[in-house]
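Suppose you are handed a protein chain with no further information: no name, no annotation, nothing but its sequence. What can you learn? This example shows the usual starting point.
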Amino acid sequence: MKNKLPVILFFSLFAPPLVSPQTPPALERFLESRYMQGASCAFLAKDIQSGEILYAYDANRKMPPASVLKIVTTATALELLGAEHRFATTLEYDGERNASALKGNLYIKGSGDPTLGSSHFAPDRSSYTPDRNTFIPQWLDALRSQGVREITGSVVADERVFDTEGVSMKWVFEDAGSYYGAGCYGLSVFDNLYRLSFRTGRAGSIPEMISCVPVVPELRFHTYLTVGVRSNDSSYIVGAPFVPERYVYGVLPANAQHVVLRGDIPDPPLFLAQYVKTCLQEAGIAIGGKATSFRLLQEAHNVPTRERKILATTYSPVLRDIVSVTNGRSHNLYAEALLKTLGTRYRTKLGEVLSSSGKGIRVIQTHWEKNGLDTSDLWMFDGCGLALSNRVTASFLCNLLIYMATKSVQSDAFVASLPRAGREGTVANLLRGTPLQGKARLKSGGMSRVRTFAGYISKGNKQYAVALFTENYACTMAEITGEIEKLLLALF
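A reasonable first move is to predict its three-dimensional structure. Written in structure tokens, the prediction is:
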């Protein structure tokens, strides 16, 4: 008898989760398939009105959520900031006015708005280019109305609402410099992206770089691209924040007149100051000093302290629309900006040192603890889900979804932000042409060997909060997505 207890303990610790009566046959078949051998899965579906569990499997296992984590970030932002919240970016000046000259600096003060010049809020997205934006004409009008024809000082970006840690230290190297890994700062512009255009010839040749829009001063590209018979979606751009060097790798399709790759602007606040200076000069306003940012001024121990006056204020779209893009298009920059904005509400304790993101995570944890959720099931290291260290349980996510659907005053804005499967956003192709098309609102998530979905699905006259996580499956993401579609159709 003495030897049996360790054996029992061993199997209790390492045996796979037992299939319960709430595990339907369709889910059992999914779990027993060849591509799920050795993989992890967590699944939960709960009635949003009664809280009754419809289906469950390993719902308390902490799993990587990928972009499904945006549900937590956006729900908290709506709860604490309100659906009508707008970010403000102000154009300010110090010094004195003398006839047509402004004897001082021109400042762009940010409040964390990720939408300034964003393509997602352009009047016509199909013809969007960064030189067609609304804030430059507004700012020019403000200066002209004051008769300003000369600025003796500099154009200065004031991005201090957030810290200088633009990207999470938990992101992996391949994300740095990518379009989806753009850094988040107190000032952002054009989604913090540039677009590189290439022309290609025959297979095996070297692509020709045609343009970079917008032009980012001092940014240098080292291209190691090749041309293949067909593209295999392997092209990527890597580089560090604040460093004006980018390395481009991968394969582009042969005989293409216009292939576009997107990458992140290394220093968005500085770029915005440079961009505004160029636009003002082209409009006939002389500027004496070099464009700069508070990060650079602080490094040089030359921070200006003179009183400033406001010339113009540019407001973002309302938060409900920002959240809709964040969840619908899975916009990482928007999610990070919301997380850091929540962090501005945190009151640092004596001796405590936290990043802007770290403060936002504390605010999120505190909010959901106050509303009865067990935040030991939530491990956040960013707001968008790129960090591989993020973990959350299906149980926590379903409880949050139920709260947002039944108790939150922001319920309508939140539910509407989740795209309808088969119709829109990142799930436009999911369940298309099936009985569930348009009847499920789901946030998708995906990264290497991780595929996740969470949201709301109707079954009969009831609505359910659903969270499904898979990790380390032995097939492609497209294949696992197809199997998940079959599973959802069988269950709902």
